[in-house]
Amino acid sequence: MPPGVEGVVALVDLPDAAWESRWTRIVTTEGLKDRLLNFTLFSLRHRGRLDAVRLPIHGLVVLAGPPGTGKTTLAGGLADTAARELGAGGLLFVEVDAHAFPSQLLGESQRSVARLFERTLPDLAARGRPTIVLLDEVESLAVSRSGASLETNPVDVHRATDALLEGIDEVARRCPNVTFVATTNHPAGVDAAFLSRADLVEEMGLPGVSSVKRILADTIAEVIGSEPADEPALGALAEACVASQLDARRVRKLILRAIASSRELALSPERLRIEDVAAALRDEADGAHR
Hints:
Elements: E1 8-14, H1 21-24, H2 32-46, E2 60-64, H3 71-86, E3 91-97, H4 108-125, E4 131-136, H5 155-174, E5 178-184, H6 192-197, E6 200-203, H7 209-224, H8 231-243, H9 248-260, H10 263-267, H11 274-288
Parallel strand pairs: 2-5, 2-6, 3-4, 4-5
Antiparallel strand pairs: 1-3
């Protein structure tokens, strides 16, 4: 089945060595990765033998938080790491684009969503492999029906949310080898009934000082080939990043801003210093206030 069918934009066989950093290099709060991996392995290995009334497991994880916190990247890393743990042929990773479904044609969104969950995903699951399905930015698909106005949101959107909920339930019943990972930048905009089906909801907020230090050290080391030696300067820079409320992606992008600000660094990036990154942060802050 080629990508693009019923919103499917990628089918990837995992594990893949190129995906390892999606797990190892994303910095999270303590215990979050363990919970994600433990649940995913439990869901893929044992859900099929469990009574759905006694333990109502849908095989659904939700990662919530602002943009730039690494949710989508971590979802891919989770799938790759689970594939390594499972062994014996790994798993299939399916990426679904939630933005592919809204339509100007009345009823078309509902029909497209229904086809995805009633036909496309069961067909993929029928191959017999463990399968992880990424529903990225699920707030575009599971629109909150209580918060959406019928005057500003077509009835079709409400019907599409209904179709999604029915589809999640259907796949949970028919396809125990499928586990969903949904991401959202705006959990308040996600339908409450969808969130109630989630077996695990994890918040990925803006990084704190210790996390920013790890992100900065990791990114700088990637550029210069070694860990930065000036620990006090690194700590001060991390505190400044947190004060500026930078997300994890913006923290890493600071290194690029520092390099882009200097011809010397553009030609010889291994000369990058923490002071260069701190100057880039100040320059970015000054630009925001102009």
